[in-house]
Design goal:
Blueprint: H1 3-28, H2 31-39, H3 54-84, H4 93-123
Helix pairs in contact: 1-3, 1-4, 3-4
């Protein structure tokens, strides 16, 4: 296996991880609504806004950032592949790799933070009276 093949294979694996994190972050956005309706027992016709706390909004911000960074990772990854195959890009291959590392880890960190805030929200829920 050539170095270029090895690098492309590694990049494909990272893309799969980022795609999974992005999909999970997207799915996690609706969890507070599920928590309120099904776990706290808020009736269907009752608005949820009064029950949403800063923890939920922070979670949504973190999950949104994770999704944004995941999409940005995919874009930078395409540019890196172009560069690795001899195409001309604005940034060097080394700069693209640095951006890939940063967007990968920040996407994961924001996802974990968003899930942490969701867990905090779920653990403080009380049944509706």
């Amino acid at each position: 296996m050539t170095q270029q093949d090895w690098r492309a294979l590694t990049n494909a694996e990272y893309q799969r991880v980022v795609a999974s994190v992005t999909a999970l972050a997207t799915a996690a956005l609706v969890l507070p609504l599920f928590f309120l309706r099904d776990l706290a027992g808020i009736a269907e016709g009752k608005p949820l806004l009064p029950y949403l706390s800063w923890v939920v909004y922070t979670s949504w911000i973190f999950l949104g950032l994770s999704i944004f960074l995941g999409v940005l990772y995919q874009y930078i990854s395409a540019k890196w592949i172009k560069s690795a195959n001899g195409g001309i890009t604005t940034l060097s291959s080394k700069a693209l790799e640095c951006l890939l590392d940063w967007t990968f880890w920040l996407s994961v960190i924001f996802f974990l933070g968003g899930v942490g805030f969701l867990i905090s929200f779920a653990s403080t829920l009380e049944a509706a009276s």
